[in-house]
Amino acid sequence: MTAAKILVVEDEAPMRLFLRTTLSHNDYDVLEASCGVEALDRVADAALVLLDLGLPDIDGVEVVAKIRDRLETPIIVISARHFEFEKIEALDRGANDYITKPFGAGELLARIRVAMRSRRMESVEATSLILLGELRIDLDNRLVTLGTEELHLTPTEHKLLVVLARRVGRVVSHRELLREVWGPESTEQIEYLRVYMRQLRYKIEPEPSQPRYLVTIPGLGYRLKVDK
Amino acid sequence: MPGAGRGEKLRGYLWGIAAVALCTAFSSLVSRYLHLSQLVMINLLSVVAVSTRFGIGPSLFTAALSALTFDFFFIPPVFAFAPSDLESGVTLVVMIVVAGVISGLGERTRRQHVAARARDLQIETERFRNSMLSAVSHDLRTPLATILGSGTELLMDEARLDAETRRELLASIVAEAGRLDRLVGNLLDVARLDSGAVSLRKHPEPLEEVVEAALEQLHGRYGETLVQTRVPQEIPMVPMDAVLLQRVLVNLLENALSHAAGSSPIEIEAFLRGDEVVIEVKDRGPGITEEEADRLFERFYRGSQRPAHDGGVGLGLTICRTIVDAHGGVISIRNRQEKGAVVEFTLPLSEKGRTT
Which helix (H) or strand (E) holds A50? Predict the structure, then answer.
């Protein structure tokens, strides 16, 4: 198997050095870009993109949108604390996940593994059965079971879970969930989402503050965890 | 006070009426023993009382009212406004003038008082800023010194160092960088809270999500330590600024972690009490001493039971208190019956909180 190629888009050289070293020592091939234009030029060959949001030429969010126009390549956004808003935008425009500076090598590699794995799970188009630990989501028969117990979900809760399941491993933004479950005119009604998400989490998780499946991404959205 | 508004002014007028009534009543009791000019003094007390506490409006009002009532009740002919002789007339005029002057003086004193208080506050802020700067620069430099020192040593003597020493140096660089990151995070929060720039962005939030986010932020830092949480579904959404509340929980958890001996568990428990939510963070560390229960929340105060190599600056609990206060809640610390400490804080469920 050839090594997966990762495109690193980062304008700061020391940060690029860290990323390049970490990735190449963990059996990834590294492509580098120091600005948005270079990134768009090189993205076609990449299996995954690590994208810093603060680029000198094009707005990082624009880069995400331009890549998504053409490709399904997983994108992990790298952001600093003060790019909170851009982070939400980037996820909304199709980025798969984000990682906040500063971070360690271990965390970076874990995120990359998750993004690669969820890409594989997503790519099985015909999947109608999703298995995550004890959780079993049967899309064809609208059946959700936890261990041996069948969960009684309301239609809305079920829809929410299905939207998350179809993007398993990805951060699904509040707006995206609202759009898919309640329709395009409801994307600002975050209170609905909170209420139903809460009910769903208490049905699936024994203790939602330490979730096994349905993870909260504060201020951004939710993610259905890929099995370990 | 600027912005004290109508209520405060109205109170001034009411106080004026009450003070005049009181002085008049007292004067009428003693009028037969005292001379008219001495009774004036007693009645002027009402003007003094009002003018030092309220603005020029209420004090002039009180001055006029006390002159009128004095004229009406005490200056012959009693129960009429026009004075009967020259002496009474002069007494009345002098009283009006003195009352007016007192009002003016009272107003000036009051203003100076307010200005002095503002100045005190500014000096206090300045002093705090200075102590903060020196504490901060020291605490930022400590980890930086280790990072710079270990880094240069690795660079210069790489070939001569054995693998274990290299590992040690690298591990301390990583640990100190993490400490620096947390420190900067806390300082940014203090600066934000202090500048008053933080408007609370309060929304009804699911508490379990905030607890989850706090644990996630610390992930990997609690290694062996077991963290048990209990946030029951019966707790409704809580009006709060989730970002700031997450900071409270992270700080409390960090404290608990640094005190958790070995792998003793930490517990987070939330429950309802009346119309508020109570959140407790409990550890099995050495606990606190009685006399520091309140001091622990002061800026730069560091607990006597802290572990030897604790990198804190003594800001964590201060930040917690500031945030909880701003939500209209209360935070306190106590020892557990068996062993360890509990920090408890409350969040009101209804929007009565703080209105200012």
Answer: strand A48-52
